[in-house]
């Protein structure tokens, strides 16, 4: 197996190679659409199941709304429509027919033209609020707390596996509330759920914050987000939660009678995370040998590799290995015993490193004699010899340790790559020499934000929600600023 | 709440009303597409999770393939293309723009016309076999055992909630094998998995069989199916499993080197079930009061309704009810305690009957005194008084009994509605007077099959796979037949 391009050599190439070689995903025959391969999908399933559990725990239920949005609904909320009109797939016909000029070929049947074009959903606010209209009459019908797992399509011109694809999988929460406060609280709550998931499940530290008006979701009054820092110093928006005000309720005429008997428009939120998180996971933890997966997300948590000459040795080792496997399974740990005889141990070691299996247990004749095994950690590449006795508990604890250590490592990396700067020159210098998160003062105007973006390609990732408030003057205009905001180049 | 139309009055109307009133689904603003509401989706999630477990248990893994199929791939397997060309949604453009004549409105941007049209997948054989081409070189790459959970679109002219919708949710398994025998075995195995799921999880008896050539999936060499009988005597195809031969491997040039070093085309299967199963579930068990759900699929298995006057009584009852709830939850039973004070017990009784909750526990002051509760079964509408002591174990057993009884009831119904007929006159008479499954002889020709369909609207649902073989002569042509086949009018 050819080695991966190293990260220092070409980070972008390393990423693309890794996604394909680790069997996570590949480009398809459809422009900009990916195939998520079984190993990649198994990781996504684990993300999905954990998020789904968290959504249900916070009172949400799942439902399913149509893939197609009629153009008249799509354009109802003007800002939202404007934001997505330039990148949407449009269904115009509902039938093909035989091509009279080319036997065996098909052409669009011009007689099967739709009266109204259908947009393949890039997001579902329009179709969902058009539905909520029928569900909401009284404050007693509120709140509505619904989530949907679905595919969406945004016609991206430049695509990259997981990070930016024309079709992607995601979840989108859509809630309706009787009061503004309740909706704002919901948007904040779900951003917290995302942060909790990212940090405790993906072992990926995130900064929670608010988007600036120019970076908000099209149609939102406020966008909350979680921002993560990748190994190459670029930021990745890992999840967003929007307070939509009454914009969609007004566009779709969703009114209810409140407790006081007055009629008003409902308040809305929406929030989403997508298969983009797979990209974030890869670029937070992986190394030049391949994937590094936190135990919580690893489809295989432990692999046992026998080292043997001949069938008799394999049989002896297998007996012990299967016992270890059973004990670990009882603890809910997923274990693969790789007794394949075609591939050499060295090949297997490299393969499971590439696939990011958190722990590898190797066992040879001498281990058999000593009643021990060799354990190798994927995250820090250390090895140790451990006795068979108590191995299952040891491994159970070790997996927890790995999870923590991976978070700590990523957290330390981020700490080392956040720089506070006080002048525009310094800002540009840091971006050049040590890219990462930059905390700097901003005057609050779209003009300054735009100028910085134009000149440096760095954007305001968010206005952090933490308490680290410090007054100063903004980078370019020199106007007063009440707190630093988070800049970075971003995926 | 207005009562449901009764089944005897108008079965079709009863079905449509029930789906909407029980909050399962509703029609959307998109022609032929439905909204699956949270309660309906919760039932579908249970179906999905159980099937997914069974697929994984039989060695399958999940993956995800693109929604869009480029026209050139779509038309590659001719029979498959022909089968779906007349009902497919076609994406022709990738952008909207502002309508210069109507401010605030959007139109399709003619400059954003796709070079090649994209078909919204009606099924994924084409896109998947185009992908498998890159995955299969040697017999060592086989078998590939993949399943996908996805949405698909078939442009149906006449739609009905769950039974026939333009967009629906489904799973589609797509496997590749080195030999014909292995592929046939896979197709049979998955049909068995479907039958097992239908009978043991949905409490719905099914007949396993083979489709006639004219009823086969477009592109299949053989289609296995499970057929269920609805309460109105119509059949419903609940799942299909196809042996695809080498048709797709040839269309997409998927070849591999076999063990003997020779190059040959791979063998394929595909198999699917969809949200149509929701319709089957409803029409197998439900009654004039509403849904009847088997305990395995009920989002709420037990509801506790307090019967009280005043807050003090409610508090007393609540104490006991919460204890019951906790004990049942420990046994993995989902329980709702409905202590809402707005709605009267009678209203609640009707509501949970409509929603098909398998068991209702009612508790009033006298029950409190007697340390007892009233238990009502949804399936057979019987009631009994039971002591609090040992209630949790009693209910656990009772839920299993209900599951069995529901299957038995449906099985008995089917037995009573299978008629063996030996002449065409008898056939037509039975269809008229007592519609259901009809076992009759067929001469094996498409002509006789077509004539019967034309004249009676009954189709051959399947050639059963059971051992009940009995020779005879066919209905119209009078030619010899080796076994009876299963006829019915169908959904």
TrEMBL record, chains A, B:
A Pfam cross-reference name: HGTP_anticodon
Residue ranges of every copy of the Aminoacyl-transfer RNA synthetases class-II family profile domain listed in the record: 26-294
Family annotation (InterPro entries): aa-tRNA-synt_IIb, aa-tRNA-synth_II, aa-tRNA-synth_II/BPL/LPL, Anticodon-bd, Anticodon-bd_dom_sf, Pro-tRNA-ligase_IIa_arc-type, Pro-tRNA_ligase_II_C, Pro-tRNA_synth_II
CDD domains assigned: ProRS_anticodon_zinc, ProRS_core_arch_euk
GO MF terms, alphabetically ordered: ATP binding; proline-tRNA ligase activity
Protein biosynthesis is among the record's keywords: yes
The entry's keywords: Aminoacyl-tRNA synthetase, ATP-binding, Cytoplasm, Ligase, Nucleotide-binding, Protein biosynthesis
Enzyme Commission code(s) on record: 6.1.1.15
Enzyme class, broadest EC rank: ligase
Superkingdom assignment: Bacteria
Reaction it catalyzes: tRNA(Pro) + L-proline + ATP = L-prolyl-tRNA(Pro) + AMP + diphosphate
UniProt xrefs under SUPFAM superfamilies: C-terminal domain of ProRS, Class II aaRS ABD-related, Class II aaRS and biotin synthetases
SMART domains in UniProt: ProRS-C_1
GO cellular component, one term: aminoacyl-tRNA synthetase multienzyme complex
UniProt-listed PROSITE patterns: AA_TRNA_LIGASE_II (PS50862)
Subcellular location(s) of the protein: Cytoplasm
GO biological-process terms attached to the record: prolyl-tRNA aminoacylation
Keyword Ligase: yes
Signal peptide range in chain numbering: none
Record text about domains: Consists of three domains: the N-terminal catalytic domain, the anticodon-binding domain and the C-terminal extension.
Task performed by this protein: Catalyzes the attachment of proline to tRNA(Pro) in a two-step reaction: proline is first activated by ATP to form Pro-AMP and then transferred to the acceptor end of tRNA(Pro).
UniProt subunit comment: Homodimer.
Family label: Belongs to the class-II aminoacyl-tRNA synthetase family. ProS type 3 subfamily.
Protein name per Swiss-Prot or TrEMBL: Proline--tRNA ligase
The organism of origin for this protein: Chryseobacterium piscium
């Amino acid at each position: 197996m050819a080695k991966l391009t190293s990260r220092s050599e070409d980070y972008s190439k390393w990423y693309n190679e890794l996604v394909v070689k680790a069997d996570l995903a590949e480009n398809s025959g459809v422009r900009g659409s990916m195939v998520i391969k079984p190993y990649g999908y198994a990781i996504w399933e684990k993300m999905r199941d954990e998020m789904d559990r968290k959504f249900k725990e916070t009172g949400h239920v799942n439902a399913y709304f149509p893939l197609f949005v009629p153009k008249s609904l799509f354009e109802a909320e003007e800002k939202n429509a404007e934001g997505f009109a330039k990148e949407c797939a449009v269904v115009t016909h509902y039938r093909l027919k035989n091509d009279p000029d080319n036997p065996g070929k098909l052409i669009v049947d011009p007689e099967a033209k739709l009266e109204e074009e259908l947009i393949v959903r890039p997001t579902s606010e329009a179709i969902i609020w058009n539905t909520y209209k029928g569900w909401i009459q009284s404050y007693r019908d509120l709140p509505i707390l619904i989530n949907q797992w679905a595919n969406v399509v945004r016609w991206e011109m430049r695509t990259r596996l997981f990070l930016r694809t024309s079709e992607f999988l995601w979840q989108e929460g859509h809630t309706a509330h009787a009061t503004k406060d309740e909706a704002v609280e919901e948007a904040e709550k779900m951003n917290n759920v995302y942060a909790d998931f990212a940090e405790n499940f993906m072992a990926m530290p995130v900064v929670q914050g608010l988007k600036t008006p120019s970076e908000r979701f099209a149609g939102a009054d406020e966008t909350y987000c979680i921002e993560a820092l990748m190994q190459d110093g670029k930021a990745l928006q890992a999840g967003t939660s929007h307070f939509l005000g009454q914009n969609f309720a007004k566009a779709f005429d969703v009114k209810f009678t409140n407790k006081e008997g007055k009629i008003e428009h409902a308040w809305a939120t929406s929030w989403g995370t997508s298969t983009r998180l797979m990209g974030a996971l890869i670029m937070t933890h992986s190394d030049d040998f391949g994937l590094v997966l936190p135990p919580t997300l690893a489809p295989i948590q432990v692999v046992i590799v026998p080292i043997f000459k001949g069938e008799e040795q394999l049989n002896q080792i297998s007996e012990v290995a299967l016992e270890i496997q059973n004990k670990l399974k009882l603890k809910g740990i997923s274990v693969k015993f790789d007794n394949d005889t075609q591939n050499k141990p060295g090949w297997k070691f490299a393969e499971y490193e590439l696939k990011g299996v958190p722990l590898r247990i190797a066992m040879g004749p001498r281990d058999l004699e000593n009643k021990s095994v060799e354990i190798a950690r994927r995250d820090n590449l250390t090895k140790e010899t451990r006795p068979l006795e108590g191995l299952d508990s040891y491994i159970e604890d070790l997996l927890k340790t790995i999870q923590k250590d991976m978070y700590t490592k990523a957290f330390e990396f981020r700490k080392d790559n956040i720089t506070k700067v006080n002048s525009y020159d310094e800002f540009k210098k840091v971006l050049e020499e040590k890219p990462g998160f930059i905390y700097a003062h901003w005057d609050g105007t779209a003009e300054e934000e735009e100028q910085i973006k134009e000149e440096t390609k760095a954007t305001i990732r968010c206005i952090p929600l933490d308490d680290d408030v410090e007054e100063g003057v903004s980078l370019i205009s020199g106007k007063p600023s009440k707190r630093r905001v988070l800049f970075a180049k971003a995926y």
